[in-house]
């Protein structure tokens, strides 16, 4: 699938294409992926629309791209319009590294299923980390799901 088709495929079957917030998450996901020798690349959820733009993760517009994320001499924009990113899953030293690529090229995506649901946190926002969720409560609310509010009328 091209990058756009791959993202739609992820959204129809899971939550979306994978996004990483830090190197630890990148390494964790790579550890789950099989080694591939033929076409050892998968699409991930980082892209840009124009040459001079900053790389952005889909969904939350994070600009984290890590210190060690890109393969050597990448991103290089060899074909002038390499605005999507693939991740290597071979068994060489560049396993888990990224390469900028033309979005029209065909690859499989890495998808994820969100742990946070609409009902995860009653009065707060849900934050996901590897195999864990945490509710960040609104002011005046507490509890594991931000389900308890302070009694504003007690003296």
Summarize the structure in short.
The protein has 155 residues and is α+β, with helices and mostly antiparallel strands.
Topology:
Layout: H1 3-13, E1 16-17, H2 23-32, E2 41-47, E3 56-57, E4 84-88, E5 98-101, E6 108-109, E7 111-112, E8 124-129, E9 132-137, E10 141-142, E11 148-149
Helical run tally: 2
Please trace the helix and strand order, writing H or E for each element: HEHEEEEEEEEEE
Mean pLDDT: 88
Question: Structural class, judged by helices and strands?
Answer: alpha+beta
Characterize the quaternary organization of these chains: single chain
Gross geometry? elongated
Instruction: Report how far the terminal alpha carbons are from each other.
Output: 62 Å
Please compute the radius of gyration using only Cα atoms: 19 Å
Number of strand elements: 11
Largest sheet, strands/sense/barrel:
5 strands, mixed
What percentage of residues falls in helices of 4 or more residues?
A: 10-25%
Low-confidence stretches: none
Description of the molecule:
With 155 residues, this protein is α+β, with helices and mostly antiparallel strands. Helices cover 14% and strands 26% of the residues. It contains 2 helices and 11 strands. It is elongated. The protein starts with a helix and ends in a 6-residue tail after the last strand.
List keywords for this structure.
2 helices, alpha+beta, five-stranded mixed β-sheet, 155 residues, two-stranded antiparallel ribbon
């Amino acid at each position: 699938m091209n990058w756009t088709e791959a993202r739609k495929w992820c959204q129809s079957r899971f939550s979306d294409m994978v996004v990483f917030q830090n190197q630890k998450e990148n390494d964790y996901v790579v550890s789950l992926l099989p080694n591939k020798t033929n076409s050892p690349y998968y699409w991930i959820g980082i892209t840009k629309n124009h040459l001079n733009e900053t790389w952005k993760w889909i969904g939350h517009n994070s600009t984290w791209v890590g210190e060690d994320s890109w393969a050597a001499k990448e991103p290089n924009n060899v074909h002038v319009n390499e605005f999507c990113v693939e991740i290597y899953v071979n068994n060489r030293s560049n396993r888990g590294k990224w390469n900028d690529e033309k979005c029209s090229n065909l690859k499989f995506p890495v998808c994820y299923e969100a742990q946070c649901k609409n009902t995860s946190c009653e009065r707060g926002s849900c934050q996901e980390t590897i195999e864990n969720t945490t509710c960040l409560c609104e002011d005046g609310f507490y509890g594991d799901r931000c389900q308890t509010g302070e009694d504003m009328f007690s003296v």
